[in-house]
Design goal:
This protein is mainly β. The chain has helices spanning 2-16, 98-104, 130-136; strands spanning 22-32, 39-49, 53-60, 64-68, 72-77, 87-92, 115-120, 123-128, 138-145, 155-162, 167-177, 195-198. The chain contains three helices and twelve strands, in the order αββββββαββαββββ.
C-alpha cells in the first residue's frame, strides 16, 4: 500500500513539475507555407528560460536569430551578400510566441486554470481555454514523448494548432534541461551597420 501511494505521489510530482526553469534543444520545424500552401522545413536551436525568455537560432532555410524577453523582441536577418546590411526588427514588449506557450506549461501536465490535459500512453493532448489562447495564440498542442515517462527531456515532438489555423510540428532532439544562461543572454546587441525596423 505504501509503495503504491509513493508511486502515485511520484507521478503527480512529475506532471506538476513538467517544465524545467530553462532548457536548450535542437529542432526541425515543419509548417505549411501561406504563399503556395506547400510544406516547409526550418532547423536550428532554441533556448528558453522561465519566464518569457526565448532565443531561437535558425540555421536553415535562412539564417535568422530571434531573441525575446519580457521587455523587447529582436529579429535578426543575416544579409544574403557580404556587401548588404543585416536587418533587425525591434518590437517593444513581448510578442505572442513560443515563450508564452512554455510559460503557461509551467502549470504542468494536469488540467488547470489555463488548459485541459488528456494523457494517453506516450502522449499528452492539451486544449487551451479562451484566456490562454489570447495569451499564446495557441488553441491546442500535442506533446509526444519517447516512452511512457512524460519528462520534459524525453519529449521528442510538439504539434501546435494555432488560433489562426496554422499547424506547426516541432521535432526535438538533444534536449538539455536547467541550463545556466548569463543575465544578458536574452538580449541582443544590434550591429552598427544594421537596417533597423521598429514595430
Amino acid at each position: 500500500m505504501l509503495k503504491k501511494s509513493f508511486l502515485i505521489i511520484m507521478a503527480s510530482t512529475q506532471v506538476l513539475a513538467f517544465l524545467p526553469n530553462s532548457f536548450k534543444t535542437e529542432y526541425i520545424q515543419e509548417f505549411k507555407s501561406k504563399v503556395d500552401k506547400g510544406n516547409r522545413k526550418a532547423t536550428g536551436i532554441f533556448e528558453y528560460k522561465y519566464p518569457s525568455n526565448l532565443r531561437l537560432d535558425q540555421s536553415q532555410p535562412e539564417k535568422l536569430l530571434y531573441v525575446s524577453n519580457s521587455k523587447t523582441t529582436w529579429i535578426y536577418r543575416a544579409p544574403f551578400f557580404e556587401d548588404e546590411a543585416p536587418e533587425v526588427t525591434i518590437h517593444k514588449g513581448q510578442e505572442t510566441s513560443l515563450s508564452n506557450f512554455f510559460d503557461i506549461l509551467k502549470a504542468g501536465l494536469k488540467t488547470n486554470a489555463h488548459y485541459v490535459v488528456k494523457l494517453d500512453k506516450s502522449m499528452a493532448k492539451i486544449t487551451f481555454n479562451k484566456n490562454a489562447i489570447r495569451k499564446t495564440g495557441v488553441k491546442s498542442a500535442q506533446l509526444v514523448f519517447d516512452g511512457k515517462d512524460k519528462n520534459f527531456d524525453k519529449m521528442k515532438q510538439i504539434v501546435i494548432q494555432y488560433e489562426d489555423g496554422r499547424d506547426v510540428k516541432l521535432d526535438l532532439k538533444n534536449t538539455k534541461t536547467n541550463v545556466n544562461f548569463s543575465k544578458k543572454y536574452f538580449e541582443f546587441e544590434v550591429p552598427k551597420n544594421a537596417k533597423i525596423v521598429r514595430q
